[in-house]
Amino acid sequence: MGHKLLLVEDDEATAAYIVKGMSEEGFTVDRADNGRDGLFLASDGSYDAIVLDRMLPGMDGMAVLGALRAARIETPVIILSALGTPDDRVGGLTSGADDYLVKPFAFAELLARIRLLLRKRGAAEGAVTKLNSGDLEMDLLSRRVKRGARVIDLQPREFRLLEYFLRHPDQVITRTMLLEGVWDYHFDPGTNVIDLARSVTARFVIVAFLVQLTVTGGILLFVQQSSQRALAAEQKTLVTELRDDLVSAWRAGGDEGLRRIIDARLEQAHASPPVILLATARQDPIRGNLGDWPTVIPARTDWQAIELYRTGSDRPELMGVSSTTLPNGELLLAGHVISSSVRLARVNEEAITAALVIGVIFALLSALLIGRVLSNQIQGVVGTAREVGEGRLGRRVPIGGSGDAFDALGQAVNAMLDRIEALVSQLRMMTDGLAHDLRSPVHPDQGVARARDPRDRGRRPRWRRWNASRARRTTLLGMLSTALLISRAEAGIGRDRFVDTDIAGLLEDLAEVYGPLAEDRGFEIAVEAEPGLQVALHRELVGQALGNLIENATKYAEGGHRITVRAAREGGGVALSVADDGPGIPEERRAEALSRFGRLDPARHVTGSGLGLSLVEAVARLHQGSLALEDAGPGLRAVIRF
Predict the structure, then answer these.
(1) 581 and 496, same structural domain?
(2) Given 83, 100, 121, which residue is the final one in a domain?
(3) Are residue 606 and residue 518 in the same domain, yes or no?
(4) Catalysed reaction per UniProt (predicted)?
(5) For the chain, what is the total number of helices (H) and then of strands (E)?
(6) Is residue 536 included in any domain, yes or no?
(7) Are residues 245 and 134 in the same domain?
(8) Closest CA to 278 of 307, 256, 296
């Protein structure tokens, strides 16, 4: 067609699909992935049509459209957007768009709308009612196809397929064109039907089908071979038993006894009639139901299948025979007609073939069913992830309760989502806490900076105010430093600084550092640590975390006198704890104490930022551990386990 199209779309999957499809339709497509570049390309007015996404980085699609219309560039514009409410569509059309298409969409519909815009602009050819190729003629109005004078009857899908071929002469027809133009597969940015075999689910379905087909085919082949071997063995056994019986009769009664047995056997009715021939050494018949000794049968053979005429029969029959030479030189041939057995074997083969065909169908259906079940299971995860991405953080992957791998996947994803939701909640709480706690030390400084009290001309009152201001600034810097440490620990920064540490020595150092502070506040620090306990950890951060716990105990364990710092092996890890003998924290309020900026002092009479326990918990997580608040009976015990 040769039309020039501008696509302004930031989503790579959507853009690639549109560019590919439109290029296959003969359009020349330029693409911009942001609003500013799209406006720059569209401003020269050289395009026949513009496909414009509404939500673009750099410059919104509506702003691009407004700028184009303000510059009197009247290139037809079709807006392509996920915003599909009536107000959104009306807003786009009233802003100057010529058309508005909501995502997700069908490529065929997008192509039809673009061609409609081109026809309205006069850039396309007139309507076509007949298509021709040589002596083949297609009338689109009457839906008739003729080759020469002969009318060809076509089914609707066949008509559409032929129409598509005739509309694209001398052109390679691609999969996208056939899917959209004939089979009505609609566009999904994450789906490519022709590439189905490349998907993991399709490969799994193929593997499952092949495995089931192999197992089914192997079983049926085994049954068929086993039945054939059993049937052949039974036939040989019957022939061998007949021959041995005849030989035994000759040994017991001579020629006369053998002749009596032959006559008796031939007179009996059998499902597989016997075949017997007694002949001279020169192969002249003596007694039996064969007219001549078969030339292809040697004097001695254990088994041979051959077609022969029985005496009185007008058609050959398939027989299994065995021959031997008697001690007197006479030849003996014994066997059975096996035509019915062969027919049974053929019926058996046909039944097995039919079973194989049915097995193939069921294997394919079961493989497709398994693939559908897998897809449905994965869709639960995908749907949850999509909703969480849209802001519904409370959504979780449904758990079936079967305990399979999909439940394990769902539980792992849900644990991740719980962590994300908790972090976002903490971020919101941190914002609220900052609004209160950072305002408290900063607001008085503003008053100090602005105060101009004539009576405070002396140096000492002013220095007192400045010292108080400096203390508040120090508190502020401490809060910010602690928040930074928490962020670094939660991001996993610092694991490269893990070193093997003597836990007992670390606790003794902490007791020595915090001992004077504890004594000033009426506490004594006791250290209980197993000797020889070595753990790889971040010594500085763990020391600061334990120091925070010790300092908290000196602040809040009112009425207590003893702080116990303990280290012990617990399970396969280590537990570090700081316990006091104060009033403790009620169990129902311990989660509140662990929250970011959590303060159990509503009036905030005691100096603090509410970040101490948050830092301890972040350090525990850095070491793949956890923090728990427990009852020390009396008092509170904070335990870091890792």
Answers:
(1) yes
(2) 121
(3) yes
(4) ATP + protein L-histidine = ADP + protein N-phospho-L-histidine
(5) 16, 21
(6) yes
(7) no
(8) 256
**Which H or E element spans position 86?**
helix 86-94
Q: Are the CB atoms for 325 and 247 separated by under 8 Å? A: no
Residue 104 preceded by cis peptide, ω within 30: yes
Instruction: List C-alpha distances in Å: 399 to 378, 381, 412.
Output: 12, 10, 11
Question: CA angle, corner 297, sides to 294 and 302, nearest 5?
Answer: 140
Q: Which residue has the tokens 């049954």?
A: 223
Pull the structure tokens for residue 427.
């971020």
In order, the DSSP letters of 353-371 are HHHHHHHHHHHHHHHHHHH
Copy the structure tokens of residue 105: 């969409």
| 612: amino acid identity, one letter | G
Q: Is 76 left (phi over 0), alpha (psi -120 to 50) or beta?
A: beta
Judge if 63 and 137 occupy the same domain. no
Shared-domain flag, residues 117 and 134: no
Q: Determine phi and psi for 321, rounding to 5 degrees.
A: -130, 160
Residues 287, 251 share a domain: yes
Sign of CA dihedral 205, 211, 214, 217: negative
For residue 225, being part of any structural domain is answered with no
- Expressed as residue numbers, the domain containing 333 is 235-339
pLDDT per residue over 538-564, tens digit each? 888 888 889 889 988 888 888 888 999
Q: Are 152 and 98 members of one domain? A: no
According to DSSP, the residues that pair with 568 across neighbouring strands are: 575
CB 596 within 8 A of CB 608: no
On whether both 498 and 636 belong to a single domain, the answer is yes
Full-prediction pTM beyond 0.70? Answer: no
Asked if the structure places residue 449 within a domain, the reply is no
Structure tokens at 546: 């334990």
Number of domains the chain contains? 5
CATH code where residue 14 lies = 3.40.50.2300
Residues 132, 142: Cα–Cα separation, whole Å: 15
| Residues 6+ positions from 612 with CB-CB distance below 8 Å | 482, 548, 549, 551, 552
In the numeric block, which tokens belong to residue 28? 């020349």
Segments in 390-491 forming alpha helices (H) = 405-437, 439-450, 459-490
Residue 82's φ and ψ, nearest 5 degrees, are -80, -10
pLDDT (tens digit per residue) in 153-208: 888 778 888 888 887 787 777 666 666 566 554 444 444 444 444 466 677 778 88
Q: Which residues contact 325 (CB under 8 A, 6 or more apart)?
A: 299, 300, 331, 332
Answer with the one of 143, 167, 191 that is the final residue of a domain.
Answer: 167
- Whether residue 484 lies inside any domain: the answer is no
